[in-house]
Specification:
alpha+beta, 578 residues, elongated, five-stranded antiparallel beta sheet
């Protein structure tokens, strides 16, 4: 009997050992890789280290956009469900305190915690003081379903300042508007990765080896924008908006020698720190459009600088020519009125520009003809993208030479029937200001990348090609004529004794669409503008002012020119314009 019991125990023990051996063989040999992977997934955390997005600076190094370190919190919902089961608690018991710490609504937090997903983002862009409170709560409660990772916050220290130029980024830090979008690849850098072993509360184990690939930060970008000039044109734009009860205001200041934009403002504007606010999609789309780049308008009489300079370059007109203006001109049976319906009478070339005579300008255009006129329209980059480093640039609308009729030539020459963008008009005045050579407008000057060893790599961002549109002699003569329009004309609202300003005003009826979709000219909505620069002997800056639908007056000399004068006066305190 004892022998039988002994044999039974021995056999049972042997079976157990064989089973354990087989299990051990399975675990250590057959399934070792699978088991190791499962174990690693429970104790190893892979954390993305986001690259710091490059800063955006003005030409003097003032900070316009930057990135600060932040955190994000994710939830492992499988772990969360096991926690609830083991402790007999409800999701509400965690949702309320988490919502309070993270500044969220309890209902929103509860919805996230009860999601059907395995994991979910609880919140991003969290600052350190909030994370410190969250860590204290995690330690106090002994919970492990919350994962704290790295994140970044894009910060625009001046709120709405330069908003249409800077643009903004989305929740993932990717540029979606303005320079942030255009130079996204340059700014964003390359994220790193950190792999470490953690305990059940997701704390790094101090004895474990950490594998880390450092992030490569993005390049800093230096703009041509001058912070001081930008500030005061933004203030002037706000004053103009209020005074004229305008629909919108656009102001641009540039350096004609380099094509660099010193200041650009569009109103209404937005705060890139929170561009959507409570806006509908339609409101958001409207307020974030950069009129200076994305939209075109009929420039009116400011376009006459193109017509006259082209005819002068071709030797078809000079300062000694005279033109008779009876108040209108008939073009193939169509009457085109002059701004002075009773007529200007005998007009010199200087008078044509100073009095903004439509008849005189059309007579000049007729000397050019459709082919040559179209040739210069193309050379001045109208009807095409200029290449400015901002997204969504419009081409405007111009007549194709083969489709241009005499009436089209007439109306186009005085800035009607064709459309241009503010950027295109600035390129035109800059060409005349720069000896006939166009250096297209741009905003970014250089990108600076610092590597992990502190070495700097500087890359030029202004890649636009310059080209000659008119000769220097023509450009100098045009500047003298435009100086006669403003600097030698005390009836001009931009006239100043001490600053030799040159320029041209424009007044254009707005094109509107009626309820039936038919387009036509408005009888009571206008665009008033001024374009020019100073000093005319050696232009240092050029200025464009556009007031869209002013309610108190309509003429460019009454509405836009006074604000241009204010810009010249302010710049004179900063740069010499004598």
């Amino acid at each position: 009997m004892n022998n039988k019991r002994y044999i039974g125990v021995t056999v049972l023990t042997l079976v157990l050992f064989l089973g354990l051996g087989a299990r051990l063989f399975y675990v250590t040999v057959i399934a070792k890789d699978e088991i190791f992977t499962k174990a690693q997934s429970q104790i190893v955390r892979e954390i993305i280290i986001p690259a710091k997005r490059g800063d955006i600076l003005d030409r003097n190094g003032s900070l316009l956009a930057s990135t600060t370190e932040a955190y994000r919190v994710d939830a492992d919902l499988d772990t969360f469900r096991r926690l609830l089961a083991s402790k007999g608690k409800t999701p509400e018991s965690y949702a309320a305190p988490l919502a309070q710490i993270l500044g969220e609504e309890t209902e929103v937090m509860l919805e996230k915690l009860t999601s059907d997903h395995r994991g979910i983002i609880i919140k991003r862009k969290i600052e350190k003081d909030v994370i410190d409170r969250l860590r204290a709560y995690i330690k106090e409660e002994g919970i492990s379903f919350l994962l704290i990772g790295y994140d970044n916050i894009r910060y625009y220290p001046n709120s709405s300042y330069l908003s249409h130029v800077l643009g903004s980024v989305n929740i993932d830090g990717t540029g979606v508007m303005g320079l942030e979008y255009w130079y996204d690849e340059t700014l964003r850098g390359v994220s790193g990765i950190k792999i470490a072993e953690v305990d059940k509360q997701n704390r790094e184990l101090p004895y474990s080896e950490v594998v880390q690939t450092p992030a490569i930060d993005g390049s800093d970008i230096t703009l041509t924008i001058d912070e001081k000039i930008q500030y005061f044109i933004e203030n002037l734009a706000e004053e103009a908006m209020e005074k004229h009860e305008a629909d919108s205001i656009t102001m641009i200041v540039s350096d004609p020698k380099s094509g660099g934009v010193l200041g650009m403002v569009n109103l209404p504007d937005f705060d890139p720190n929170n561009p959507r606010e409570d806006r509908t999609q339609e409101e958001f789309d409207a307020v974030t459009r950069n009129f200076a780049v994305n939209d075109s308008y009929e420039p009116g009489s400011t376009f006459k600088i193109v017509t006259v300079s082209a005819a002068m370059e071709e030797g078809l007109v000079d300062e000694h020519d005279h033109f008779n203006c009876p108040g209108y001109i008939m073009v193939n049976g169509v009457r085109v009125n002059c701004v002075n319906r009773s007529g200007h009478g005998d007009q010199s070339l200087q008078d044509v520009l100073r009095n903004s005579c439509n008849v005189g300008t059309i007579l000049i255009a007729q000397r050019l003809g459709e082919e040559k006129f179209s040739e210069y329209v193309d050379a001045y980059l109208f009807g095409q993208k200029t290449g400015i480093d901002l997204p969504g640039e419009t081409t405007g609308i111009v007549f194709e030479e083969e489709n241009m009729k005499p009436i089209d030539l007439a109306t186009s020459s005085i800035g009607q029937a064709q459309t241009a963008s503010p950027v295109q008009m600035m390129n035109a005045i800059n060409t005349i200001s720069n000896g006939g050579v166009m250096k297209p407008l741009h905003l970014a000057e250089k990108a600076v990348l610092e590597d992990v060893n502190g070495n700097l790599t500087v890359r030029a961002l202004d890649t636009a090609q310059e080209h000659e549109v008119i000769g220097r002699d023509t450009a100098d003569r045009m500047l003298k004529l435009l100086y006669g329009v403003v600097g030698e004309n005390d009836r001009s609202a931009a006239y100043m004794e001490d600053i030799p300003v040159f320029g041209k005003t424009g007044t254009a009826q707005k094109i509107i669409t009626d309820e039936n979709g038919k387009q036509g000219y408005s009888d009571d909505e206008f665009i008033s503008s001024f374009i020019g620069g100073a000093p005319y002997t050696d232009p240092q800056i050029t200025v464009l002012v556009i007031v869209n639908n002013p309610k108190d007056a309509i003429y460019g000399n009454t509405v836009a020119a006074p604000w241009a004068k204010e810009i010249f006066l302010e710049v004179e305190k900063y740069l010499s314009l004598n």
